[in-house]
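Tutorial handout. Part one gives the primary structure; part two gives the three-dimensional structure as tokens.
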Amino acid sequence: MTTWRGEIPVQSDAVVAKNYLSRDELDILNRIVMLYLEFAELQAKDHIPMYMKDWLERLDEFLKVSRRGLLTHAGQVSHEVAEKKALAEFSKYREKTLGGLTTVEKHFLESLEDKQKELESKNRKPGDGE
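Part two.
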């Protein structure tokens, strides 16, 4: 995975396909979506009715004009198989990184150490060590 919310990936991130795109691929996807939405707004402002069939045709045309390949088939891996694979790999990742602490856990331990030092300094008698 290349993209996730927060500091570490969680299981739900593993099954989102766009989380496997590189930064550049994600940027391109976002630009395509934004351009397509701008086109949709122009159609609406011009009161041009558009049906799902029309949108599919326009998307194909848009992708051709921008020299992007068209997906002409459903692929060879089902959604269920892809999801199982992603979850299995995420499970391996979690087992491998289980010993690592999350940011919240690290901050909690740091605050405990700070509190311990604070209590020790309050309990120190005058003339002790420092």
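Part three, for discussion. The chain has a mean pLDDT of 85. The CA atoms of residues 2 and 22 lie 6 Å apart.
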